[in-house]
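ok trying this again, last paste got cut off
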Amino acid sequence: MIVHAEVDPGAPPALCPYPPTPQNSLFFYINDPIKVQQEGQANFVAQPRSVIVGPQLTRVTLDINKSHKAVRVGFHPGGLHRLLGCSLSGMIDDSYDAADVFGKPIREVNDRLQEAESFDAIRDVIEQFLLQKVRSLREALPFDKAMLELVKMNGNVPVETAASLACLSLRQFERVSKERIGLPPKLFARLVRFSKAYRLREELPQWNWTQIAYECGYFDQMHLIRDFKQFAGVSPGILAKNLEHTPVRLQAGLRL
């Protein structure tokens, strides 16, 4: 997913809320790197040219540059685990300089992205890097397909059903879930449903919260409010007011 947003150079800093999504990501920042403020922290921290983002449970605030050009590679459930070969349970609410993980190849990608003259060229550079990694991927498991089905259903799949699709007992399903996606399955399902609700709000601000709750499969609006307070740190109403002053909607076009 390529994001390109131009902000008036004379405007105040472009601060954008970025609640957690259920999708692990690899970000490439082609123009000036962004700055990130973690929840509860006062300072913004400049990010490297390429960043691996593990499982997220809390909102961050992004200070994007005036000409924001970035690429987001989103992984299906289990995808980042298959790429890195390590448990994701220790990566919650953390990010890593991709150059520290992949070394010279990713630094070469960063340099080539600076020279790319079109979106097609940008896509080709990153796809070539990813295709080189295919040979070393860990094997896909039925678990990964089961969790992808859960994502497609916006988290509205009983854990027992998902475990059955994964060909695992509930205890095994819990253990594998923490290893391959970093989170317990019930918490992951809640995050999937919350993410759908938040993305709908960015994309369709004219919808009221009752419509969004219904569309995402919430039992009632109180369950939606609970998830927003946990994952976004504020109520839906406050977050909606924040979005009114946000120059760029970074998750409206997000595809899971």
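PB: full thing came through this time. The CA atoms of residues 229 and 235 lie 5 Å apart.
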